[in-house]
Amino acid sequence: MPILTRSGRVVIAESIALRAVHLAWGLGDGAWITPPSENADATSLVSEIGRRTASEVTFVVPDAGGDIVLPTGSYSRSASPTNHLFVVTNFEFVDAQSAVIREIAVFVGSTMIPGLPEGRKYFVPSEVQSPGRMLHLENIAPIYRSPAIRENFEIVVTF
After folding, report:
1. Which residue, of 65, 67, 103, 124, is most buried by count of CB atoms within 10 Å of its CB?
2. How far is Cα 43 from Cα 151, in angstroms, rounded to an integer?
3. pLDDT of amino acid 53
């Protein structure tokens, strides 16, 4: 039976790392008392309110003593491509002020409408020309946004 080799998985991670990567966040369904299971067939958030360009996309390796500590394990950055991509997104204080965030997703290949100011990193749905492809989806416990808090997300996607 044919398989996707480890080197093939590295090629996928390398290809993704070369493209535009954004983290989108959304309101989800306000009726959610606890986050529902993610839908593997999802292509968009239930109710996106914005997306930000990833601050860092780099290769990592599992490492029990690594300085990247996530619920999924510990990792260290790798100078060589691996099948693990570390995606960091640092939202700003003013992004989605007063919103309740219940869902996040990593998108690859998003494009924005022409004419937006150079250097913009945060985009609302009306500024997104093409959302790209959803790579990673999480339904999360509610985060009540405050203009006094800068939200940061760190995710490792393994291929």
Report:
1. 103
2. 24
3. 98
Residues 23 and 123: their CA atoms lie apart, in Å, by 10
Residue 47 pLDDT > 90? yes
Tell me which fold the domain 6-158 belongs to: baseplate structural protein gp8, domain 1 (2.60.340)
Helix (H) or strand (E) run with residue 22 in it: strand 21-26
Q: Are 158 and 135 in contact (CB under 8 A)?
A: no
Task: From 159, 131, 118, select the one nearest 26 (Cα to Cα).
Answer: 131
| pTM assigned to the model | 0.94
Read off φ and ψ for residue 128, nearest 5 degrees.
Answer: -95, 115
- The pLDDT assigned to 59 comes to 98
pLDDT at 99 over 90: yes
Backbone angles phi, psi at 12, to 5 degrees: -60, -45
The amino acid present at 36, given as its one-letter code, is P
